[in-house]
Design brief:
With about 300 residues, chain B is mainly alpha-helical. Chain B is built from 12 helices and 2 strands. The chains are: A alpha/beta (about 250), B mainly alpha (about 300), C mainly alpha (about 375).
């Protein structure tokens, strides 16, 4: 496959678990600075697709190119260093550390063993932690142990940890799960703010939320891409209504 | 030395390996079902084997004292008794200890090591530090010689038959019985199994006890090839751990294959090398292979 | 830095200071040289326990084979000392003078190739650290790069301990077999059995131990320490934050192995022999209990744990040998079931929190937050 202008280009991606094809010949292209929402029924392969992009699962066939660099054989941490950030479905934060430490640890410096030993939390790091913390609405919670945050705040903290790395591609798996209505509004605002200079892929079930944030939506079903396009078009697509949206 | 003599020696060495295979398989089988079900490695597994071995010894002793006429037939009953005692003790240990250490697999290693120390000291205090051997029935003692020059010890044949029987029974129970169904359900999704009304903690206890009971039968098999002392269990414990990991922890078929492979490698190496070097060679080989292929011989691929 | 961290830092420094006073001043004043030498022997195990705090408490990876590294360090030192003790004049009654006595007993007539470098003191010192570290690197690289941890890693390390023990016992011509290497009397001509030498070796041991604790403490407080804790609880999150988790684990495991090797060498120097009974499965698991009793998260607790368990072992196995194994069994079960954070955990939950409460009452609301943070940790 030749080089493209896309931020992320996935072609003929396939993976199977004991014969079951979780992802089947998927093609997906994400533009720079695009916010793409993936929807689809349970078991459609949405999370597996993110797993394949970030390296949690290995592809059986096909290609994933990020900034025209082939990822399929690359170790996970190297993909992260290229600029891919992944938020998991259930908030994955360090519950025993403070909010500050959670963000500090995610700062993209001192990533080797020796680098981590020599790492100093200097003015620059502290500045960045404070900026990101107020971005994700946790500016006044820096010294709190992360385990004590509410579920929604944990989701924000994890997004904040990703922002610390200034990724060029953000993969967000159900970022508003378990959030109150007010928190959902705030998250929608947050997502709009952070996708200014990066591409974002969001998996979400909440259709109201999807409508609010999405310009382009991809619908997955049984490991394949069923439809793709602007929200208005997707909503009226009979196949999508059949398998997912309901009548 | 001509060819047929060489063949005979090879066969006999192979048979010596089969006795080891039997003990390793029975030990590994018990460990594997416990590990598969609960993610726990039981460091006291060797001592449960020793319990079984002592049971055989005590049965033989008591038979001799009170019913010498039964000498020829006590052994099968003693094997059942060995299972039973180890089973009961396993039940107790799970109830008192293991169930409190849920999701702390590493701590379970240490706690069961404590159990193992306590059991060894119990053997030393109550039975004695000396190694003992049961008086086996005559039909277990001599060798079977299908052709002149080829002596196959009958105890080896018996142990092999016992092992095959137990292995078959375990595999059958896992695939057909209620217990097996519950075990398989718990292994694949503990929370879900709980949610649909399987008493997983009861299943755990039963599984642990059955695993220990099988170790007790391994002890019975062990009495036919060695004498029993307080620390006999330690002889096989690392080998049995390796049998389980080498086979791929989730696979009982893997356990059978790896027990066979390890026992035969060791037996073959012993023919060419000094005993301790054979052991070093076998263990190193397994460790190196496990470093290259840590998931063991048989492993299934699922999304995690 | 939060108030809790500042407090914690001061608390750590004070407890290290108390430990140093105890080892440097109090024990040498209280005990005769025989007992002090015994303490020195225990302290050489404490290197292993301190390493285990890093690998197991912080790293979340349990090794049941630390005796291997202790033994390799100890044997490296013992080989040098044994060669020194086997000069041709002392060994002139042997059929081959100039080689260690056990080789002569095993009809070996020339020094094996492997032994030659150990004629050099500086090489031997290097080997004390390098050999355990190299083996640790090989084992941990193979395992951690393939994401093997938990019970599997424990089993593999245990198997390595068994292999090395069987190898040492089996190759008695090269290793001294089950008796080990004995009669190690001098170091570069200096008689290590005199009282003066024992005092010096004790202080060397204490100094190196405190140095090791400081080094480990520094690592814990660095970003690497935070990362170790982070990957113990959320391995995937660390990996997907751009870190090679395996590298950090390998580093920690090698560090623990190097410390154990140093401990082993100090053991050989202070006790005057090295044998396979400090290498195998049983001593390796026992070393884990030293750290567990002291508190798997506390470097200083590990030292106290080592001292207490070993003092108990010496006392009971002399006076009530039958009881000792039961007590040991009780320790294993009790520590894992009831006190997973060991003595340090008990100390912190009873003494420190109470003290904080008392202080916060005295000082009012200002330190309330600190006490709260302390209670959470």
């Amino acid at each position: 496959m030749s080089n493209t202008d896309f931020s992320l280009a996935i072609e003929d991606l396939t993976v199977s678990f004991d014969g079951f094809k979780a992802i089947d010949q998927v093609n997906l292209y994400i533009d720079r600075n695009e916010l793409r929402v993936i929807i689809g029924p349970n078991g459609a392969g949405k999370t597996t697709l993110l797993d394949l992009i970030c390296g949690k699962t290995r592809a059986a066939a096909g290609s994933i190119k990020f900034k025209n660099i082939e990822l399929t054989k690359m170790a996970e941490f190297k993909r992260v260093r290229l600029g891919i950030g992944r938020k998991f479905q259930t908030p994955s934060i360090y519950e025993n550390l403070t909010v500050f430490q959670n963000l500090e640890v995610s700062f993209p410096k001192g990533r080797s063993v020796l680098g981590a030993l020599a790492f100093v939390c200097d003015e620059e790091v502290q500045q960045r932690v404070h900026t990101v913390a107020s971005d994700v609405l946790l500016g006044d919670r820096l010294q709190l142990q992360a385990g004590l945050l509410s579920h929604g705040q944990k989701q924000w903290l994890e997004i904040g940890m990703l922002l610390m790395q200034e990724p060029e591609l953000l993969l967000l798996d159900e970022p508003i799960a378990g959030m109150s209505a007010k928190e959902r509004d705030q998250t929608a605002e947050l997502l709009k703010r952070i996708c200014n200079n990066r591409s974002v892929i969001v998996i979400e079930h909440d259709m109201d939320f999807v409508k609010r944030i999405a310009s382009k939506v991809t619908v997955m079903h049984q490991g394949k891409i069923l439809a793709e396009g602007p929200m208005s078009k997707i909503q009226s697509d009979p196949r999508v209504i059949e398998v997912y949206l309901g009548h | 030395m001509n060819f047929s003599e060489l063949l005979n020696i090879g066969l006999m060495q192979g048979f010596a390996g089969l006795s080891l295979f039997a003990v390793l398989l029975l030990m590994g089988l018990g460990l594997a079902i416990i590990f598969g079900q609960m993610g726990v490695i039981n460091m006291a597994h060797g001592e449960f084997m020793t319990i079984g071995a002592y049971t055989i010894y005590l049965s033989s002793h008591l038979t001799e004292l009170y019913a010498p006429g039964l000498k020829q037939i006590y052994f099968p009953f003693a094997v059942v008794l060995a299972f039973f005692f180890a089973f009961l003790l396993g039940w107790l240990v799970e109830w008192v200890l293991i169930r409190h250490l849920y999701k702390r697999a590493l701590d379970t290693l240490l706690a069961t090591w404590g159990i193992s120390l306590a059991m060894q000291q119990c053997f030393r205090t109550f039975i004695g530090p000396k190694e003992v051997s049961p008086n086996l029935p005559d039909w277990l003692l001599d060798a079977w010689a299908p052709v002149p020059g080829l002596d196959i010890p009958r105890n080896g044949l018996f142990v092999l038959a016992l092992t095959l029987f137990v292995t078959g029974a375990v595999l059958l129970a896992l695939s057909k019985s209620r217990w097996g169904l519950r075990v398989r359900a718990t292994v694949s999704n503990r929370m879900m199994a709980n949610a649909i009304g399987i008493d997983t903690s009861k299943t755990d206890r039963l599984t642990f006890a059955i695993g220990c009971g099988i170790a007790g039968m391994a002890g019975a098999a062990f009495t036919t090839i060695g004498s029993t002392g307080p620390t006999s269990g330690q002889l096989y414990i690392v080998d049995s751990f390796l049998v389980v990991t080498f086979g791929g922890a989730a696979s009982l078929l893997g356990t059978v294959v790896s027990a066979f492979g390890i026992a035969q490698t060791q037996s073959l190496a012993e023919f060419f090398l000094h005993g301790s070097m054979a052991k070093v060679l076998t263990l190193s080989l397994i460790v190196v292979i496990l470093m290259m292929r840590p998931q063991g011989l048989f492993a299934s691929k699922v999304r995690r | 830095m939060s108030m809790f961290q500042a407090l914690n830092k001061r608390y750590q420094l004070i407890s290290l200071f108390i430990l140093a006073i105890l080892l440097v001043v109090v024990l040498p004043l209280l005990l005769d040289i025989f007992r002090l030498n015994l303490i020195g022997k225990y302290l050489s195990y404490a290197f292993v326990a301190v390493g285990l705090v890093m690998v197991w408490g912080y790293g979340g990876v349990l090794s049941l084979g630390q005796g291997v590294f202790f033994g390799l360090g100890g044997y490296a030192m013992a080989m040098f000392l044994k060669l020194e003790a086997s000069d041709p004049i002392t060994t002139k009654i042997q059929s081959t003078p100039g080689i260690p006595d056990f080789m002569d007993w095993n009809q070996i007539t020339a020094l094996p190739l492997m032994w030659h470098p150990f004629k050099s003191f500086s090489f031997s010192l290097f080997a004390v650290v390098a050999v355990p570290t190299l083996l640790a690197w090989i084992v941990s690289f193979a395992m951690f790069k393939r994401r093997v941890g938990g019970v599997y890693f424990a089993i593999i390390t245990q198997a390595v301990a068994l292999i090395l023990t069987v190898l040492i016992i089996g190759q008695q011509g090269y290793t001294g077999g089950v008796n080990g290497m004995t009669d190690l009397k001098t170091l570069l001509g200096w008689d290590t059995r005199t009282n003066g030498a024992k005092y010096i070796l004790y202080y060397v041991c204490v100094a190196l131990l405190i140095g090791s604790i400081l080094l480990c403490r520094w690592i814990q407080t660095s970003k690497a320490g935070t990362l170790l804790l982070a990957m113990r609880d959320k391995e995937d999150r660390v990996r997907f934050s751009g870190y090679d988790v395996a590298d950090f684990r390998i580093f920690t495991f090698c560090l623990a192995a190097a410390l154990s090797g140093i401990g082993g060498a100090l053991f050989t120097l202070q006790v005057g022999f090295m044998s396979p009974s400090f290498v195998g499965i049983v001593p390796s698991v026992e070393m884990v209990i030293f750290a567990a009793v002291g508190g798997r998260m506390s470097l200083i607790g590990a030292v106290y744990g080592t001292l207490i368990v070993n003092a108990g072992k010496s006392f009971f196995s002399e006076s009530f040998p039958d009881l000792w194994l039961f007590l040991m069994a009780g320790l294993f079960i009790g520590v894992t079931m009831a006190f997973p954070m060991g003595l340090a955990g008990l100390w912190e939950s009873f003494v420190v929190t109470r003290w904080e409460k008392y202080r916060s009452k005295a000082k009012g609301s200002q330190s309330d937050k600190a006490a709260l943070a302390g209670g959470l940790q």
